[in-house]
C-alpha cells in the first residue's frame, strides 16, 4: 500500500541518460482490487486484460512502455530527450465517483488515441519530474566557427523548445545570456568591458545565440549550458545587464561548445599572398643590385691594376 491519504500529491525527480530505461515507482506493494492507476495520457493500469498502453503524442511512447501489474509502476525503455517532462500517476479508488468502474468496463484498448487528463482531487497523485540527458550535448565536441569582422554569426544549439527550459550562454567562462522559457525571462549581459552591449540576440524557439557587428575581441570559447528541467527555484533573479557573472558550475544537463575565430576583412588570403610575394620580390631585387655593385667594383679595380 502507498503511504498517504487520498487527495495527497507526492513528487520525485528522476534523471537518466538517453537510450537507457527508467522505472517510475509508485511505492505501492499492490494495487487493491477495483483500484486503477491512471498514468496521465500514456497508460491505464488495472490488470493485463483491462489495461491499456497509449502511444502518446506523435507516437513517442510506442513500444516503449511496460507496467508492473502488482504495483502499477511504469517502465519506459530506450528513452530519448523527447521523453523529458512531468509524469503523473493517479491512484483511482473503486468508489471514486464511479470512475474506476467505468474504466474497467472499457471494451477495448485504442492505443493511438490521445486522452485529456481528468484528475479527481480526492485521488492520490504521484508526480515524477523526468530528465533525459541526450548525447547531442557531449562536451567533447567543439564546433569551430569562422567569421569576418563586422559580420553577424549565429551559434546553433540544434534544439527545439520542448528540449530545454533554461539556457545559459558563457563566453570564456563569463555569463553573457540567460533565457528561461518556463517563466519567459531573458537577460543579455554586456560582458567584460561592455564588449557585447547591443550585440546579442537569442532565438526563443531554439535558444541559439546571435552576435552582431562582431569584432576580434569577440573571438574565443562559447558554451551553451542546457537545462532540460529546471530544478532550482529562483535561478533567474532579475536582469542586471551591466554586471559580470562567472559561469555557474555543475548545473547543466548538457553543454554545447563553440570556438569562434574572427578575421580582419581587409586581409584576405589573396592579399596576404600578394604581400608575401611582394616582399620576396623586394628581397630579390636588393640581392641583384648588391651583386651588380660588387661586379662593377671588381671590374674597376681590375682596370686600374692593368694600367
TrEMBL record:
Coiled coil: none annotated. Keywords: Membrane, Transmembrane, Transmembrane helix. InterPro entries: Ig-like_dom_sf, Ig-like_fold, Ig_sub. The chain crosses the membrane at residues 271-297. Residues 11-117, 142-245 form the Immunoglobulin domain. PANTHER family: CD48 ANTIGEN-RELATED, LFA-3. This is Immunoglobulin domain-containing protein.
Amino acid at each position: 500500500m502507498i503511504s498517504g491519504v487520498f487527495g495527497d500529491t507526492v513528487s520525485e525527480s528522476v534523471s537518466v541518460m538517453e537510450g537507457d530505461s527508467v522505472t517510475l515507482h509508485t511505492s505501492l506493494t499492490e494495487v487493491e482490487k477495483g483500484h486503477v492507476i491512471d498514468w496521465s495520457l500514456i497508460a491505464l493500469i488495472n490488470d493485463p486484460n483491462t489495461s491499456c498502453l497509449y502511444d502518446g503524442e506523435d507516437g513517442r511512447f510506442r513500444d516503449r512502455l511496460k507496467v508492473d501489474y502488482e504495483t502499477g509502476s511504469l517502465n519506459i525503455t530506450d528513452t530519448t530527450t523527447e521523453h523529458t517532462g512531468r509524469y503523473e500517476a493517479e491512484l483511482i479508488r473503486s468508489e471514486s465517483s464511479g470512475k474506476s468502474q467505468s474504466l474497467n468496463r472499457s471494451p477495448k484498448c485504442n492505443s493511438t488515441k490521445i486522452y485529456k487528463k481528468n484528475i479527481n482531487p480526492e485521488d492520490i497523485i504521484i508526480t515524477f519530474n523526468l530528465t533525459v540527458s541526450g548525447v547531442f550535448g557531449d562536451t567533447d565536441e567543439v564546433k569551430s566557427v569562422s567569421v569576418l569582422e563586422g559580420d553577424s554569426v549565429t551559434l546553433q544549439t540544434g534544439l527545439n523548445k520542448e528540449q530545454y527550459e533554461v539556457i545559459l550562454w558563457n563566453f570564456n567562462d563569463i555569463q553573457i545570456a540567460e533565457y528561461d522559457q518556463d517563466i519567459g525571462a531573458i537577460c543579455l549581459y554586456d560582458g567584460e568591458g561592455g564588449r557585447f552591449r547591443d550585440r546579442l540576440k537569442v532565438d526563443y524557439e531554439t535558444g541559439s545565440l546571435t552576435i552582431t557587428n562582431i569584432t576580434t575581441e569577440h573571438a574565443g570559447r562559447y558554451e551553451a549550458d542546457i537545462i532540460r528541467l529546471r530544478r532550482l527555484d529562483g535561478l533567474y533573479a532579475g536582469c542586471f545587464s551591466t554586471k559580470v557573472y562567472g559561469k555557474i558550475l555543475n548545473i547543466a544537463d548538457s553543454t554545447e561548445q563553440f570556438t569562434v575565430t574572427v578575421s580582419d576583412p581587409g586581409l584576405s588570403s589573396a592579399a596576404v599572398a600578394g604581400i608575401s610575394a611582394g616582399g620576396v620580390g623586394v628581397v630579390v631585387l636588393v640581392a641583384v643590385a648588391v651583386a651588380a655593385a660588387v661586379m662593377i667594383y671588381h671590374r674597376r679595380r681590375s682596370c686600374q691594376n692593368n694600367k
